[in-house]
Amino acid sequence: MMTEADYYALFDAYRKGELAGAERANLERRLAADPNFAQRYTDFEELTETLTSYGERRATRQKLKAFQAEIDAEDETVVETGYPDMPVLHISPMERKLREFWGAHRATMAVAASVAILAVFVTLLGMEWWRTSQSSSLYGYTVLRREVERIKRNQRAMDRAINQIDGSKTADAASQSKFSGTGFALTADGYLVTSYHVIQGADSLLIESRDRQHYHAEPVFTDVAHDLAILRIKDKNFNGFKRLPYSFKRGQSDLGEKVYTLGYPREDLVFNDGSLSARSGFEGDTAFYQVSIPVNPGNSGGPLLDDRGNLIGVVSGRQMDVQSAAFATKSSYLMKLVDSLAAASPEAPYTLPRTNLLAGTSRPQQIRKLQDYVFVVKVYE
Amino acid sequence: MGKGQPSYTDEEFVAAIRRGDDRALAQLYRLHLPMVTHFVLQNSGSEDEAKDVYQEGVMVFYEKVRDGSLELSCQIKTYLYAVCRRLWLKRLAEKGRFGARLDDHEPYLETGAEADLAEAQERDKRFGLMAEALEQIGEPCRSLLEGFYLLDRSMQQLTADFGYTNADNAKNQKYKCLVRLKKLFFSHYKEEESY
């Protein structure tokens, strides 16, 4: 009688093809005849088959590992460029690591770099946009201080350079003002009025009269809400203007009043006239008049006078999207400001002109008398 | 590829590997390694990962060839590329990165690699169970069975190696081991299948 162990040995021999003819035929006959016996053989076969192919798999894996190890040993310092026909590069292990890192992360790094670059440009553009939107007011309201052109500055710099080569120094060494506007005399002893936005952010101020005389000035008081600024000339050798020819109107002027202004939108004094078209300013601001005078950057701070030579306002700005709509601060607000300043410091009184020397004279005559009291206000930042 | 070895055509490779020619296998391995390395490196893998994937791929090819069941409808190169591409895709999915986007250069052909790979993975599972069962039966059973079935030693040799008094003892011991292995393996196997 055969034991289980004997059967297994028999199966083993059969699988390996070691059984001789008679025994083999005998076994095959039994397998065909006895289903139970056949099942036992199938189970046995499945197990041993798995076992042997598992063994083969292990052996193959060892073999492949050996191939790889062999290749690795050959090119310790040779990097595979990925193309068999390209020359291989001999590089250090350090560089090899870097290359691997680059290969693995270059997509991420490229994305990060583009985001960084984009962020830089967005920030720069955004800041530029914010700055420009700050300097010009909202909703089409434009203040009228003049940005002195870059060309002119360059021109002056060149002139200066040439002069220095000549050896003759000019007194006008630092005339690189950034903005300019107009101002006019408030009192005979050196107080001036201009618009607040003209001197906004100023480091120093220079007043230039029509005959090219220069005075240094300093702001005494500013009123942001009504766009007014009062300056005082601080030069030691300044000894007062002549008597002011115009007076200041304390009340309001009427619609339709003929008005005019003088100012320095260019290097020269410019006259413009029109009518008083509304008694409120931009968006209904009652501190301002609307006047139909064509004004330009540089006109800011200029005096607004009526036919009889009364000063009724200070030119401030214009509305971009409306035909010739300029705005001027009402003189009544200027007067209130001066009164409150005088009350606050009685030791430095504001002696305003009381009489009007212009009334009844013609326009050209008025202007001839006026022009010495209108100045360029130059702003240095 | 130079290196003083004869170069084979695809048919010669298959024939030589079927015969069990290790030199042919080594050369085939060497021949296509750069392609797969390049592919894996291009697709956010490391060199070690590339080697792993390539060895798996070659294994699939090798077993099909040894089996005699390989039906090659394209170049070996394309077949290997397809298998490795598939394998790497799986690895990436397991790593959970980049979804299924791949930076492909070569056209992905219908190579039958998919089916072969699925089959190989089925086999992998069985081998995994077998390895586990072999771990569990312990010594000296493991060494005995490995000696007989894996390393193809004869019973006489094993009797001597393990110090059995006669071949009958060894035979009985082997039988007991095999029964235990069978029990372990089939219990796992059936368990897996019932899922």
From TrEMBL, chain B:
Task: Kindly provide the name given to this protein in its UniProt entry.
Answer: RNA polymerase sigma-70 region 2 domain-containing protein
Q: Which residues form the RNA polymerase sigma-70 region domain?
A: 28-97
KW Isomerase (keyword) present:
no
List the Pfam families hit by this protein, alphabetically: Sigma70_r2 (PF04542)
The transmembrane segments are none
- Keywords from the UniProt entry: DNA-binding, Sigma factor, Transcription, Transcription regulation
Q: State the InterPro entries in the record.
A: RNA_pol_sigma-70-like, RNA_pol_sigma-70_dom, RNA_pol_sigma70_r2, RNA_pol_sigma_r2
